[in-house]
Amino acid sequence: MHSTLHNQKNTTPLLPVWDEALIAVTLGDHSFLLHDGRLARQAASCLVVPETGDRAIVLASQNGDYFIVHILLRNRAESAELSIPYSEEILIKQARIGLQASDKIELRALHDLEITAATGSLSFNARNLFSTIQDNLVQSTRNVVSKTEHCLMEVKQLFKINSKQALITAEDDVKIDAERISIG
Fold it and tell me: In this predicted model, what pLDDT tens digit does every residue of 52-69 receive, in sequence order?
């Protein structure tokens, strides 16, 4: 599997040396044991995280380090993890970016998740929309327009509306039911 180029004047191989190898063991911290016993690290340009059993291109650098630079073949292709080793953040800059999945897209963060459309619109289109908020929901806007067939709201303690003007209009009935009703 080794392919080595030799200098015509010297029998020492010209470095770097490219080679094909199988990933034998995932060691963690972007390090891997190859099938022939060499230790290799994932190169920063290899965005697909290597897995055990992958066939990869390995680069031997001049200082004796080995780097996995490309994943050629994966036995099981159910999923692939993308990661840039030794980087805290990935930033993708482009005029347009599209993510498409035929089944599901998940966005997860242990701490914060921010979505900003600074001068445009943010649109959600779904059959159902569920939201669960543990502490506070704070909304600040100029106008709220809601159109719905039914609106059900349950408040356990206090429901308060403050406004300069408030209108409740019903075509048939308005019902207010309470132990005590105070008007004025």
Answer: 999 999 999 988 899 999
Distance CA(171)–CA(184), nearest Å, equals 24
Q: What is residue 78's predicted lDDT score, i.e. its pLDDT?
A: 77
Whether the pLDDT of residue 33 is over 90: the answer is yes
Q: Residue 139 carries which side chain, given as an amino acid letter?
A: Q
| Residue pair 57/17 in contact by the 8 Å Cβ criterion | no
**Tell me: the pLDDT tens digits for 118-147?**
999 999 999 999 999 999 999 999 999 999
Place of tokens 């099938």: 35
Is 0.90 surpassed by the pTM of this model? no
How many whole angstroms separate alpha carbon 111 and alpha carbon 1?
Answer: 46
- How does 98-129 read in b/e, with b if 16+ C-beta sit within 10 Å? eeeeeeeeeeeeeeeeeeeeeeeeeeeeeeee
φ/ψ region of 86 (left if φ > 0, alpha if ψ in -120 to 50, else beta) reads left
